[in-house]
TrEMBL record:
Pathway: Carbohydrate metabolism; tricarboxylic acid cycle; oxaloacetate from (S)-malate (quinone route): step 1/1
Recorded superkingdom: Bacteria
Catalysis: reaction(s): (S)-malate + a quinone = a quinol + oxaloacetate
Lineage: Bacteria, Bacillati, Actinomycetota, Actinomycetes, Micrococcales
Family: Belongs to the MQO family.
Protein name (Swiss-Prot/TrEMBL): Probable malate:quinone oxidoreductase
EC top class named in words: oxidoreductase
Annotated Pfam families: Mqo
A single MF term (Gene Ontology): (S)-2-hydroxyglutarate dehydrogenase activity
Required cofactor(s): FAD
């Protein structure tokens, strides 16, 4: 059960819902719709030979369960010195919604296996008096909110050593340091979860077609969409095929922008995308891995994009534990890791050119940061790890190329081109097509994002679905979440468990 690698069915020429891309977003929407409307015919079209190979792959993303417990960019400091926690609260709530949905699928017997999620403390670690002061004020503000009341703070080096020994061993004892810890954080393998969700959808009748690339989208007179597909298998008898769909969701990661542009919907006008690639350092050394069990975020360098905030994470992939540090930013004009080099160039349009130029001029510090990262020598990059982990040895670590991220650029009246660092759903006014743009927090908030798609694109059905959705996710109906914010509780019952 829940394996998407079953023999594929013949390509249907007409479906109710077409999901473009085999990542966590399409998987989540497919699972939701297969439960809400089991009679609908759903087609999933993935250009590669398997699902979860781009941003949803565990080695292509840093998405270990974003809950805003440790990410400083979600709690900015206001000019008056106070800390704004509104975004952190929203992201934490959205992640809880995701966990409620996963919990429902497991307890209802619709999805099997809890190997995709593991209890892993979330920590923030900072150095220097100014940063220590900021972290203390952040903690004091956050702990007043019920979602963060269990967050711990310390500036005691001995306590930090108990929490995460690799952060303090070999460090200058005169350097002020501080840390916060949420002991009930989680590590999520979104690749494994994606496969389970798509497996759920195919178990309930959805058709998965890998090696099928959507090359065109055209709205027909009857309101349906015609998808042009290219069969990428080497021995395909028919290269070009078409499918018509009542509703289309573009969950193609970095490939979503060009496809929405190809669809010609006016809502995509003014939108552009700036691709950012990157690398991580990874170790599977048993001696090193055994000394660290946490997801630890630091503070970003000036001018660095939020996705480049340094972090030293415990990751569990296919039952094996690793440590991963990074990311190191880079640049590639591709919109997908396994995409075309002309991705950025071919996305330029008359309607988004000024957005792109305006955002570029406003973010010259980001440009300088990226240039510096690309030009940095390997020993310089490794020194960044040693700031976190002074005892790190080059021989224990290998370089892993991360996935592509495409930062949203859009035209905002009165501001011009603006570079966005979140995710955004773009939907046609008639609700017949939608797509998701952007990066972090991405996968962790997939359920909330897809609920938004349901509400916007199926307005005539959503009210009927709400009672069922509230059963799956009680917080949607105003009830207290059965898993609340205590991830440890997930290990004590039939709920989502950590191994």
């Amino acid at each position: 059960m829940n394996s998407p690698r079953t023999p594929e069915k013949p390509l249907a020429t007409d479906v109710d819902v077409a999901l473009i891309g085999g990542g966590i977003m399409s998987a989540t929407l497919g699972a939701l719709l297969s439960v809400l409307e089991p009679s609908w015919r759903i087609g999933i079209y993935e250009r590669l030979d398997d699902v979860a190979q781009e941003s949803s792959s565990p080695w292509n993303n840093a998405g270990t369960g974003h809950a805003a417990l440790c990410e400083l960019n979600y709690t900015p400091e206001r000019k008056d010195g106070s800390i704004d926690i509104s975004k952190a609260v929203t992201i934490n709530e959205q992640f809880e919604t995701s966990r409620e949905f996963w919990n429902h699928l497991l307890t209802a017997g619709l999805m099997e296996g809890t190997d995709f999620i593991n209890v892993t403390p979330h920590m923030t670690f900072v150095r220097g008096e100014k940063n220590v002061d900021y972290l203390r004020r952040r903690w004091e503000t956050l702990r007043e909110h019920p979602l963060f009341e269990d967050l711990e703070f310390t500036d005691d080096r001995a306590v930090i050593s108990e929490w995460a020994p690799l952060l303090t061993t070999g460090r200058d004892t005169d350097e002020p340091v501080a840390a916060t810890r949420a002991a009930a954080g989680t590590d999520v393998d979104f690749g494994a979860l994606t496969r389970k969700l798509i497996g759920l959808a195919t178990d309930r009748g959805a058709d998965l077609h890998t090696n099928h690339e959507v090359t065109g989208l055209k709205k027909q007179r009857d309101g349906r969409w015609r998808l042009s597909l290219r069969d990428r298998t080497w021995n395909a008898e028919t290269r070009g095929r078409t499918v018509t769909a009542r509703f289309v969701f573009v969950g193609a990661g970095g490939g979503a922008l060009p496809l929405l542009q190809a669809a010609g919907i006016k809502e995509i006008r003014g939108y552009g995308g700036f691709p950012i690639s990157g690398e991580f350092l990874r170790t599977s050394s048993p001696d090193v891995v055994a000394e660290h069990h946490a997801k630890v975020y630091g503070k970003a360098e000036v001018g660095a994009p939020p996705m480049s905030v340094p972090h030293l994470d415990t990751r569990v992939v296919d039952g094996r534990s690793y440590l991963m540090f990074g990311p190191y930013a880079g640049f590639s004009p591709k919109y997908l890791k396994k995409g075309k080099y002309l991705g950025l160039v071919t996305s330029l349009r008359a309607h988004n050119l000024f957005s792109m130029l305006g955002a570029g001029l406003k973010n010259l510090d980001l440009t300088r940061y990226l240039v510096g990262q690309v030009a940095a020598a390997p020993e310089t990059k490794f020194h960044e790890l040693q700031k976190f982990m002074p005892t790190a040895r080059p021989g224990d670590w290998e370089t892993v190329t991360a996935g592509q991220r495409v930062q949203v650029i859009k035209w905002v009246k009165g501001k011009g081109g603006v570079l966005e660092f979140g995710t955004e759903v773009i939907a046609a006014r008639d609700g017949s097509i939608a797509g998701l743009l952007g990066a972090s927090p991405g996968a962790s908030t997939a359920v909330s994002a897809m609920l938004g798609v349901l509400e916007r694109c199926f307005a005539d059905r959503y009210e009927d679905w709400k009672p069922r959705l509230a059963t799956m996710m009680p917080s949607l109906g105003g009830a207290v979440s059965p898993i609340a914010d205590d991830a440890a509780a997930l290990t004590r019952s039939e709920r989502v468990a950590a191994r």
